[in-house]
Amino acid sequence: MGRKIKEIVRDRFLTEEEAAKYRKIRELVADELPELRGRAKARLKELREVTEIFRELQKARKAQGLSLGDVQRLTGIDRSALSKLERGERMNFTVDTLTRYAAAVGKHVLFQLADATEA
Questions:
Q1: Is the pLDDT of residue 13 over 70?
Q2: What pTM did the predictor assign?
Q3: CA separation, residue 20 to residues 17, 26, 47, 62, 95 (Å)
């Protein structure tokens, strides 16, 4: 099934002031679009990296024969939250959550600082 496009019908022409206002808005959007795309691309890269970290933690957990329940007992972190982190369904977590999970599977978390232009 195709995507439906909402049609906007005006019962009058725009005044010159209204048309100028909309032109200005379109110009502002066009000017900001490259920066917005760049920020979105950087954010997606960050999310992929976080997802990969939790996949690595999941591999370490499984390699040690630990269940999510085991990690829950070791960390105090809810089993459902752990599962969502591993599946990349939860991106809102604390550094404490990450370090507790890592410690439970015998890993350490290292942080690295880079220039924003390197993203």
A1: yes
A2: 0.64
A3: 5, 10, 39, 61, 48
